[in-house]
Amino acid sequence: MRLRWRILPLLLLGFMAPAAQAQDTRDELVKRGEYLARAGDCIACHTAPEGHIFAGGLAMPTPFGTLYTSNITPDPATGIGKWNSDDFYKTMHSGRFPDGGLIYPAMPFASYTKVTRADSDAIFAYLKSVPAVNQQNRPHDLRFPYNNRSLILGWRTLFFNEGEYRPDPSKSAEWNRGAYLVEGLGHCGMCHSPINALGGTSQSDAFKGGLIPMQNWYAPSLTSNREGGLGDWSIKDITDLLKSGISARGVVYGPMAEVVHNSLQYLTDEDVRAVAVYLKGIAEPAPPPPAPSTLPSTESSLLISLGRTVYDARCATCHGPQGEGKPPHWPPLAGNQSIQMESAVNPIRMVLNGGYPPGTADNPKPYGMPPFAGVLSDNEVAAVVSYIRTAWGNRGTPVSARSANELRSAPLD
């Protein structure tokens, strides 16, 4: 009898092991899905300010009207509670709802189509684990004819190439991992590529930079070394910027600060390095010459003279008398690519509105820049931006007071 009682617990353990093992496997899948959802920055669009996580409702202004993001919590009535993994993969991969309905391309399915089935299943498992929120999706508010979903068929014909990411056999595994994250889950091309009048981007223009619609920030080219191209950056400087928001070469502000805060800081060191290797690899070898100034030479000279006065009074304490900065918290302005880009939107906005880099684990108490909109006139803003774009060997061009005035009332987010 004693022998039987000794054997019984072993038998029970044998019966329980598969269930416990399955739970461990499920937990690992959910954990991996959470990591991948972070890599895809799903929370940024599918969570409204002060709203429940992944319950949608975020307003997304576009040139065609306002779109509202959807509820992707596991609520069966208003979310994705009735979906299965096949439904979710179809949505990610083909840009269609489970019933075949067309999805507006503000949802970056043109990038998500590159995500593997295994990663899609992991993300779905994670989303099924978050709290369900009963919140109806808000109808989009689009102007005619853009409220006609059948027009998306034309957009898809021009700009959508369905298919998972295919590794380039001529590149390293690290480069391919970076490409997968940047081109797929990270959907970096949504901001860092020019958007044409039809709301799309041609393959030849991928990652060449562009104004982010309705946000009045410029996402620099990731290929041009005169803009955001990282060809002459060290891997460490790139990974520092992506992981912490600051590096010896610069600091992120605006929409990119949100990306670092919500997404990039949570990536593993290996994945951040892979992204850095890929970004450095797609940069062109040399910067093109600067575009000529459209301002009369007399006006440019007066602006730059005034700009030096404003700079010495307002900026030199932090950024140095010669624009050398005090890295990493106060970035250098001399030789700073973001200052010299063809578009002067970002430096004008920083002077007007100021800002903070993201708070991250590696930089929990970021140093910010104060706004000067209340103390500098449009002429003074244009002057100091013109000065920093042309001083210390910088190869930017002067900007006009009109440009400063147009951005003075731009939304802050």
Total count of domains? 3
The secondary-structure element order is HHEEHHHEHHHEEHHHHHHHHH
> Which value, in Å, is the CA radius of gyration?
25 Å
Report strand %: under 5%
Instruction: Specify the overall morphology.
Output: globular
What is the strand tally?
Answer: 5
Strand order of the largest sheet: 1-2-3
Helical coverage, percent range: 40-55%
Number of helices: 17
Terminal residue distance: 74 Å
Average pLDDT, all residues: 88
pLDDT < 50 stretches: 1-13
- Can you summarize the main beta sheet? 3 strands, antiparallel
What class do helices, strands and sheet pairing give? Answer: mainly alpha
Question: Layout of helices and strands, plus pairs?
Answer:
Blueprint: H1 2-39, H2 42-46, E1 59-62, E2 65-68, H3 85-94, H4 109-112, H5 117-129, E3 141-142, H6 152-159, H7 173-185, H8 189-192, E4 210-212, E5 217-219, H9 235-244, H10 254-262, H11 269-282, H12 297-314, H13 316-319, H14 337-340, H15 345-353, H16 378-390, H17 401-408
Antiparallel strand pairs: 1-2, 2-3, 4-5
Helix pairs in contact: 1-5, 3-5, 7-11, 9-11, 12-16, 15-17, 16-17
Structure in words:
There is one protein chain. The protein has 413 residues and is mainly alpha-helical. The protein has 3 domains: 28-159; 173-282, Cytochrome c-like domain (Cytochrome Bc1 Complex, Chain D, domain 2, Orthogonal Bundle), CATH 1.10.760; 297-408, Cytochrome Bc1 Complex, Chain D, domain 2 (Orthogonal Bundle), CATH 1.10.760. It is 45% helix and 4% strand. The strands form 2 sheets. A 3-stranded antiparallel sheet has the order 1-2-3, with no helix packed on it. A hairpin with a 2-residue loop joins strand 1 and strand 2 (65-68). Helix 3 packs across helix 5. The chain is globular and about 70 Å long.
